[in-house]
Amino acid sequence: MFGVTLWEILTKGEKPYGETKMTTETSYDPAVYATTKTPLHHTMIGIAKGHTKLQVPSSATTSQSKMVKVCLSYEPEKRPSLDKLAAILGLVLPPMKQKGQQRGQPQQQQQQ
Q1: Bridge partners, 21 (sequence order)
Q2: CA distance 24 to 41
């Protein structure tokens, strides 16, 4: 689940599998599904079998992309533990923070 959360952060809140449409159809008829949207049950089967994956946005850095991909691994044993994630984030976040500070993006805390 953390991989999806990371993906949502990198896409600035897009809905995962947002191209999916709800349908009550149970059989695939190309004439019915000749739109850009994929029926929900086809998406669910693809996710369950590991064939359907979220695409990391092109705006992601190399380290962000690697982190999302490993967190979205189909096989649970290939996903990092929370301890390992904390270590990875410790390496990824400082450069992001420095980059943001150079651009002046982080909000300054108000002095009280």
Answers
A1: 39
A2: 9
- Type of residue found at 27: S
Q: What's the chain's average pLDDT?
A: 72
Condensed to tens digits (0 to 9), the pLDDT of residues 16-35 reads: 877 665 554 544 555 554 44
Count how many residues are written for the chain.
112
The Cα 65–Cα 81 span in angstroms is: 18
Q: Which pairs count as long-range contacts for 71-75, CB under 8 Å and 24+ apart, including other chains?
A: 71/2, 71/3, 71/6, 72/3, 72/4, 72/7, 73/3, 74/50
H-helix or E-strand spanning residue 39: strand 38-39
Name 31's Cβ contacts closer than 8 Å, sequence gap at least 6: none
Distance (Å, rounded) from C-alpha 100 to C-alpha 87? Answer: 20
pTM greater than 0.70 (yes/no): no
pLDDT above 70 (res 60) = yes
Query: What does the domain layout of the chain look like in residue ranges?
Result: 1-13+59-93, 17-53
